[in-house]
Design brief:
The chain is of the alpha/beta class. It is built from 13 helices and 14 strands.
């Protein structure tokens, strides 16, 4: 018989397991890196650290010699906002692909900067309608860019970015991809998929500490931003690119400890490889989903629509999210609420980060005790 703690969790582990979709459980080497030495960001040592982080980030995004990355101190949303506000020309427009909370966020970001949009609302339970995208781009030649989320974390849906990019490029348009919760584990490639602008984050599937984000794209495209309007000061991509590429220094004071951790996490991610990390997450997700279904719980999306990073589950009748969160938190697990229209009906579980099969088994054991206390 498995020994359990007073809270009901198997006694073999005392870790707090983060099953929220970022920040994630990190490798001890990443946490240790946060305690790196004090450093001035205008000294050669930081210039070398930043150069290495940028180069590794571009490799992580499957870029080639045409591509580069700009590192920002801020959340993944900062990177998406920097891309949207920096790359859409004056008197042009953005086609927003919205099939979840983060697709809708593209709309909010564009509105905040006075950028005209065409908002394609698809519904949170719907895949991207590629024919509709093609028609809209054909009807309105002023829509120069398309904004899409790769992994829609509100539901766990994976959108077909490569197919969307082919349609956009056939119409002479560029694609801005929010890959914040997918890059590092799900397949996405600057070079192979034709992604024009890729926004990502240091945590989530990269398994670094929160605090940094990045935008990756072509050198030539970053250079061309100098001719476009400045809608932001601190999120101006051309400003950051010029400082990092030519001055070999950040435009503003960066989060140096997060750089240390990001550098370590990138090294571990590149060493493991994207395909191996995807396989590791997939094994965890399958283990989790099998156990959830054995408990009689309903998973939101069809298997072929799900990412390996996140699972959305309907909350059982008679149980509130607050009770679920409190009960699992007492057992050492952090679960996450759904958002907006799904709130109070679904909860979400991540399989990102340095989670183990034992963590999944322990979670299912404690969830079963919560759902079936007798």
């Amino acid at each position: 018989m498995t020994e359990v703690t007073a809270a009901g969790r198997p006694a073999a582990s005392d870790r707090l397991v983060l099953m929220n979709p970022g920040p994630v459980v990190t490798d001890p080497r990443v946490r240790t890196a946060l305690a790196g030495p004090d450093m001035c960001h205008r000294e050669p040592e930081f210039a070398e650290l930043m150069r290495r982080v940028r180069q590794r980030t571009t490799r992580l995004c499957a870029g080639d010699e045409r591509h580069t990355s700009v590192i920002l101190t801020g959340s993944g949303t900062s990177a998406v906002e920097a891309a949207v506000s920096s790359v859409v020309p004056r008197d042009a427009g953005l086609l927003v692909i919205d099939n979840g909370h983060y697709g809708e966020r593209f709309q909010h970001i564009a509105a905040a900067h006075g950028i005209r949009t065409r908002h394609l609302r698809l519904g949170w339970d719907s895949p991207v309608d590629l024919d509709a995208v093609d028609r809209l781009l054909g009807d309105d030649g002023t829509l120069t860019h398309v904004g899409v989320v790769h992994h829609e974390t509100s539901t766990g849906r994976l959108n077909d970015v490569a197919a969307l990019a082919r349609i956009a490029h056939a119409r002479g348009r560029e694609v801005i991809v929010d890959a914040v919760s997918s890059v590092g584990a799900e397949a996405i490639s600057l070079a192979g998929d034709g992604v024009d602008w890729l926004a990502g984050s240091s945590n989530k599937c990269v398994e670094g500490a929160p605090g940094l984000s990045f935008v990756a794209g072509r050198h030539a495209a970053f250079e061309a931003l100098g001719d476009l309007p400045r809608r932001s000061f601190s999120l101006d991509l051309h400003r950051h690119y010029t400082a990092q590429e030519k001055d070999l220094a950040p435009a503003f004071t960066p989060g140096i400890p997060a750089f240390y951790a990001f550098d370590t996490a990138l090294g571990l991610a590149l060493e493991e490889g994207r395909e191996a990390r995807h396989a590791r997450y997939l094994a965890l997700a399958r283990r989790l989903r099998t156990g959830l279904e054995e408990l009689g719980l309903e998973i939101m999306l069809a298997p072929e629509e799900r990412s390996v990073c996140l699972t959305a589950i309907r909350i059982p009748e008679g149980l509130s999210y607050e009770s679920l969160h409190h009960g699992m938190r007492e057992s050492g697990f952090v679960v996450y609420s759904a958002q907006e229209q799904l709130k109070n009906r679904f909860f979400r579980l991540s399989t990102m980060g340095c989670m183990t099969g034992r963590d999944i088994d322990d979670f299912l054991h404690c969830l079963k005790r919560l759902l079936r206390p007798s």
